[in-house]
Automatic annotation (TrEMBL):
This is PspC domain-containing protein. One of its GO terms (cellular component) is plasma membrane. Residues 3-61 form the Phage shock protein PspC N-terminal domain. It is found in: Cell membrane. It comes from the Bacteria. The chain crosses the membrane at residues 34-59. Keywords: Cell membrane, Membrane, Transmembrane, Transmembrane helix.
Amino acid sequence: MTKRLYRSANDRKICGICAGIGEYLDVDPTIIRLVWILFTVFSAGIGGVLAYFLACLVIPEQ
């Protein structure tokens, strides 16, 4: 059985991207959210926001 990446339907804050990645990698979604926040801050806000928006468009909902 193959694992598939989905946006989380039950543990979402905005679109469920971080929770979906956490479920896929078997990592706590809070850690994914903190890494995403750090990426956003260190990329002057543009990289993280753009990546999140693109992930919302590309990753299907569960």
